[in-house]
# Entry
Amino acid sequence: MRALIAAAIGLAAALALVSAISAVGSPTGETSPKPLLTTVPGPKR
# Structure
């Protein structure tokens, strides 16, 4: 029974956190026009 209560409390806390983050929304700003490097650049030839 304690495990069920703990799981319910954890689920409620997770849902509250997701709801709070969704309510705040994404921050305003601009993205960088430069692409990110995903690989190590090799030697220039």
Observations:
- The CA atoms of residues 8 and 14 lie 10 Å apart.
- The mean pLDDT is 84.
- The longest helix spans residues 2-24.
